[in-house]
């Protein structure tokens, strides 16, 4: 891709991580503001800003410290196991709720279910799906400690399959039970989970509602440090402390201004279109052309697949990725402008979040 292409790719990675950090901050602020408001009379916005300030101060402090090492590895491993447990708990409680409804129970369910297929939401769904599966920028870090690298391809395939099944189970069951009341942060729907056992209900509610936000206290600094390293690559000579502050602080400020979780997640996904589809296709096309010019007959290689063998297919996939990114961004910005104008014209009807 050359120096310009490399710089553009690094910039897109930085934008994606900024958007991801923005998502994390909004999720934490909304979780605590919704579940632990400062007082019954306090505005939800003030509660959101309060918790966002506490979270921002904590993660910014951690970002400026060296948090690598065995302790942090153990913490991240524990959080990974806890996330798996949380998914299982959510699926089981959703199944229990649906079965209770089927037996005439009193499970909370929306009398007006959400449609299972809504074409108008495609431009919001696709970026969110990309955001949920993007990890390309972390592959070198994930692969480096693996001893048997020949098994990496199978390991990634199995991991993606398991994550996909988990997402499908959660999404399908959540929409089936909560219907039109399904929240962008679906774990917040568990605030009203009330099984026969009060103790069990308290444990499940607390775990499902608060664990994602608590786990982000570790995830946010690690992502910020990764972003700071990318900033240092784009701006050589920048002091490490300055790079880390530039990585950690802007998403907190942006979260205080815009707290629409669906909008922010879609922005991160749009960056993901370029990272997942556009740049890899450009790299494949240009590297293949380079090898054919300098070492004729060297292509295809051991790594060439059915999808990457034809330059036409490679360019087509890249063009599809760029088109989806542009279309999604256009639709999201249009909806945001329309909503903002409506809020200005009808300020007394504005609801948060």
Automatic annotation (TrEMBL):
Record's keyword terms, sorted: Membrane, Transmembrane, Transmembrane helix
For the keyword Transmembrane helix, the answer is yes
**PANTHER family cross-referenced by the UniProt entry:** TRANSMEMBRANE PROTEIN 104-RELATED
Which parts pass through the membrane? 7-25, 45-62, 74-96, 116-135, 156-179, 264-283, 312-333
Q: Is Endoplasmic reticulum included in the keywords of this UniProt record?
A: no
Task: Name it.
Answer: Amino acid transporter transmembrane domain-containing protein
């Amino acid at each position: 891709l050359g120096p310009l292409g490399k710089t553009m790719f690094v910039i897109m990675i930085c934008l994606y991580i900024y958007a991801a950090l923005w998502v994390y901050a909004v999720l934490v602020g909304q979780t605590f503001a919704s579940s632990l408001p400062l007082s019954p009379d306090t505005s939800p916005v003030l509660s959101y800003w309060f918790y966002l300030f506490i979270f921002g101060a904590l993660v910014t402090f951690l970002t400026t410290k060296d948090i690598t090492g065995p302790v942090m590895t153990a913490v991240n491993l524990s959080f990974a196991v806890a996330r798996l447990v949380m998914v299982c708990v959510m699926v089981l409680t959703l199944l229990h709720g649906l079965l209770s409804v089927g037996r005439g129970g009193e499970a909370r369910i929306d009398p007006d279910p959400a449609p299972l297929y809504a074409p108008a939401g495609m431009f919001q769904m696709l970026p969110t799906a990309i955001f949920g599966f993007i990890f390309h920028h972390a592959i070198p870090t994930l692969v480096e400690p693996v001893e048997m690298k020949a098994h990496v391809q199978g390991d990634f395939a199995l991991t993606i399959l398991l994550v996909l099944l988990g997402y499908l189970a959660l999404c399908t069951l959540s929409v089936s039970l909560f219907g039109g009341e399904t929240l962008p942060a679906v774990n917040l729907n568990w605030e009203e989970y009330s099984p026969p056992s009060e103790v069990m209900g308290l444990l499940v509610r607390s775990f499902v509602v608060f664990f994602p936000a608590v786990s982000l206290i570790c995830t946010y600094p690690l992502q910020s440090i990764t972003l700071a390293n990318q900033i240092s690559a784009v701006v050589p000579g920048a002091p490490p402390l300055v790079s880390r502050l530039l990585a950690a602080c802007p998403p907190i400020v942006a979260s205080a201004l815009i707290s629409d979780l669906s909008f922010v997640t879609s922005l991160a996904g749009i960056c993901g279109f370029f990272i997942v589809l556009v740049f890899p296709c450009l790299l494949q096309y240009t590297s293949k052309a380079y090898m054919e010019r300098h070492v004729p007959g060297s292509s295809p290689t051991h790594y060439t697949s059915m999808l990457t063998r034809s330059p036409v297919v490679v360019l087509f996939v890249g063009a599809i990725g760029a088109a989806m990114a542009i279309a999604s961004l256009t639709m999201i910005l249009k909806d945001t402008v329309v909503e903002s104008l409506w809020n200005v014209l009808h300020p007394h009807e504005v609801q948060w979040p």
